[in-house]
């Protein structure tokens, strides 16, 4: 059975809107694909360890999709596991972006409380794919109206990937539900 690994963003969960939309799409149109959408650990090294363990345990073909920080993780999966990835309004430099968020955090979906530290920013910098050789297997879905991330960073970083750039929108990627079937086709699942 093919698997879609969906990776949520910072302080999010498997109950995020995009994860729910993908789950509903697969249940309705592609029940032959298993969705794996874990609650990722709050800290980077622990999250990557969790993601790598999931990837190592998958038997059949799989693809990965991720939004925001999940896009950062999906890029790393594509690079290290040779699979296709779809990244939605991805965080290209989360070690820079999240430096403004250091301190006490609470995940609004799970209620988990933790402290984001400078060490976590160092972990993100270390885990970043600095020179990706996997861009021919990545599809960037980006909206210019993203209020959290500068869309130009993603356009530069993913410039050799398949790119879909839209005017307007926001960080949630308005209209994501219209892309579910195309995402599955791109991932060749």
3D structure, described in words:
InterPro entries: AB_hydrolase_fold, UPF0227/Esterase_YqiA. This is Esterase YqiA. The chain has 189 residues and is an alpha/beta fold. It has a single domain (2-187), classed as Rossmann fold, CATH 3.40.50.1820. The chain contains seven helices and eight strands, in the order βαβαβαβαββαβαβα. Helix 1 links the parallel strand 1 (2-7) and strand 2 (33-36). The termini are close together.
What attributes characterize this protein structure?
189 residues, alpha/beta, Rossmann fold, 8 strands, globular, UPF0227/Esterase_YqiA, Esterase YqiA, AB_hydrolase_fold
Q: SSE layout and pairings?
A:
Layout: E1 2-7, H1 17-29, E2 33-36, H2 44-57, E3 62-67, H3 69-81, E4 85-88, H4 94-97, E5 103-106, E6 113-116, H5 118-127, E7 138-143, H6 151-157, E8 162-166, H7 180-187
Parallel strand pairs: 1-2, 1-3, 3-4, 4-7, 7-8
Antiparallel strand pairs: 5-6
């Amino acid at each position: 059975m093919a698997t879609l690994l969906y990776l949520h963003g910072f302080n999010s969960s498997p109950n995020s809107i995009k994860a729910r939309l993908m789950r509903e799409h697969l249940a309705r149109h592609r029940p032959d694909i298993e969705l794996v959408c874990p609650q990722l650990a709050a800290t980077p090294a622990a999250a990557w360890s969790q993601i790598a363990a999931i990837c190592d345990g998958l038997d059949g073909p799989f693809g990965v999709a991720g939004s925001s920080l999940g896009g950062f993780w999906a890029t790393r999966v594509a690079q290290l596991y040779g699979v296709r990835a779809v990244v939605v309004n991805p965080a290209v430099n989360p070690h820079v972006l999240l430096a403004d968020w250091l301190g006490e955090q609470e995940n609004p979906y799970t209620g988990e409380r933790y402290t984001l530290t400078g060490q976590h920013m160092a972990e993100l910098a270390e885990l970043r794919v600095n020179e990706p050789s996997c861009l021919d297997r990545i599809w960037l879905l980006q909206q210019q109206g993203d209020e959290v991330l500068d869309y130009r960073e993603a356009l530069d970083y993913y410039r050799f990937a398949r790119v879909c750039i839209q005017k307007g929108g926001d960080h949630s990627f308005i209209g994501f539900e219209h892309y579910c079937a195309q995402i599955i086709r791109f991932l060749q699942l």
